[in-house]
Automatic annotation (TrEMBL):
Subunit and interaction comment: Monomer.
Keyword Cell division tagged: no
Organism of this sequence: Candidatus Scatomorpha intestinavium
GO biological process: amino acid biosynthetic process; aromatic amino acid family biosynthetic process; chorismate biosynthetic process
Binding site for 3-phosphoshikimate: K20, S21, R25, S165, Q166, D312, K339
Domain of life the protein comes from: Bacteria
InterPro entries linked: Enolpyruvate_Tfrase_dom, Enolpyruvate_Tfrase_sf, EPSP_synthase, EPSP_synthase_CS, RNA3'P_cycl/enolpyr_Trfase_a/b
Cellular localisation: Cytoplasm
Higher taxonomy: Bacteria, Bacillati, Bacillota, Clostridia, Eubacteriales
Protein's UniProt keywords contain Transferase: yes
Protein name: 3-phosphoshikimate 1-carboxyvinyltransferase
Family: Belongs to the EPSP synthase family.
């Protein structure tokens, strides 16, 4: 699907769907619990449905009615999958599933779509091997799925160094079902809010860490425990909030983004503060779970933004940086290059096509903002966040922007087109 977008004025209310990161954790911890877990307001995206599929593969019974999912888990009595386990496009699901597979006394063949078969997985496989399981990729020398995994892990000590939070969370969430305690040493931690999110979800399902250093460098997870089925409500996705938020400030608009939780552990809520520092007219309304945005105001940057904890924010923030006068320097980008695409290279490439000035180094990206942008044909590269970012870019660029492969937005924000069209965005998809 291609989306053609022109300069737009937005007005109205933008409801944002539930969080992908929360939903996937709720589903897979529900799988590892005895009893039936009830999940309200789950995100019905492709990635989250991949997590449901994985839960079925390992023996859970799931029901995915609109707005309400149930997962009848199997606790530690996980089933050896009858077939290969397909994680679709979901990196989180693939990484978390690897450690779940290492709880099973049998072989699991773990794979996903073309992007998953390019994304690195070796740190999780190394951890499984350190803890007594067996894990390796099916293609010698290729650090990506397909992976073959056999349990059972026993516990012990495992070390990570400057790794994606998903790798660490994978072992952390599976560890309570191991025979022995597990010690995780996590040197130079990345994406710390997502580690806290995993800890919080484990607590909701009845397991507390035995030790937590507080700086996310060392955890002790008790073994021989059981998760308890629970009822939960999924908070709105701050990573998705970023797109209507940026759209509102780069256009002559007035919008309200509703259904957000300012107390949530998601790190991407920091995007609001970065935009306010650029001069955006944004009002936080925590009491009512709203953000009120008035656009059309000139933005000024000169900022340096470390994305170590919020890598998913680069596409949206880089579009805001192109709109703002002055230079915006993004740092902490090593793991941003390991997402669905190399988002540093892709955003630099596509923004340059429309007239932006972007400079890229080994671990930085500088957007020289305030240039006149002109619509062009750009690619999503099959990356949901790139697709949404470039559609938002088209809302203030001159002329007409065509974003190819835009259907991938459904991976994390299945109602994106409905929400943006409801605000009055001048866009047509076909």
């Amino acid at each position: 699907m291609n989306t053609v977008v022109k300069k737009s004025k937005l007005h109205g209310d933008a409801p944002v769907p539930g969080s992908k990161s929360h939903t996937i954790r709720a589903v897979l911890l529900g799988l590892m619990s005895k009893g039936t877990s009830v999940i309200h307001n789950p995100l019905p995206s492709l990635d989250c449905k991949s997590a449901l599929s994985v839960a079925r593969c390992f023996g859970a019974e799931v029901d995915d009615r609109p707005g309400l999912w149930t997962v009848k888990g199997v606790g530690s009595e996980l089933k050896v999958p009858d077939d290969y386990v397909d994680c679709g496009n979901s990196g989180s699901t693939a990484y978390f599933s690897a450690s779940i597979a290492a709880l099973v006394d049998g072989y699991t063949f773990l794979t996903g779509d073309g992007q998953i078969r390019r994304r690195p997985i070796q740190p999780v496989l190394d951890a499984i091997n350190q803890l007594g399981g067996t894990a390796f990729t099916s293609r010698p020398g290729v650090n990506a799925c397909p992976a073959i995994i056999r349990g059972r892990m026993k516990g012990g000590e495992v070390r990570f160094n400057h790794c994606l939070s998903q790798f660490v969370s994978s072992v952390m969430m599976a560890a309570p079902l191991l025979e022995n305690d597990t010690v995780i040493i996590n040197t130079d931690p990345l994406e710390k809010p997502y580690l806290q999110m995993s800890i919080d979800w484990m607590s909701k399902y009845g397991v507390e860490l035995k030790e937590n250093s507080g700086d996310y460098t060392r955890f002790v997870i008790p073994g021989g425990r059981e998760y308890t089925a629970t009822e939960s409500h999924i908070s709105s996705d701050w990573s998705s909030v970023a797109f209507p938020l940026v759209a509102g400030i780069v256009t002559d608009s007035e919008i309200t983004i509703s259904g957000v939780n300012f107390e949530d552990s998601q790190g991407d809520k920091a995007v609001i503060d970065h935009l306010i520092m650029m001069g955006a007219d944004i009002v936080k309304d925590p009491a009512n779970g709203r953000i009120i945005v008035k656009g059309g105001k000139a933005l000024h940057s000169g900022m340096r933004i470390d994305l170590s904890d919020i890598p998913d924010s680069l596409p949206a923030l880089s579009v805001a940086a192109a709109f703002a006068e002055g230079d915006t320097t993004f740092t902490g980008l090593g793991h941003v290059r390991m997402k669905e695409t190399d988002r540093v290279a892709v955003m630099a490439s596509e923004l340059t096509k429309v007239g932006a000035s972007v400079e890229v180094g080994s671990d930085y990206m500088i957007v020289h903002g305030g240039k006149k942008l002109t619509g062009a044909t750009v690619s999503s590269f099959g990356d949901h966040r790139v697709a949404m970012a470039m559609i938002v870019c088209g809302m203030f660029a001159e002329g007409e922007m065509t974003v190819t492969g835009s259907e991938c937005a459904a991976v994390s924000f299945p109602t994106f087109f409905e929400v943006m069209e409801g605000l009055g965005a001048d866009m047509v998809s076909a």
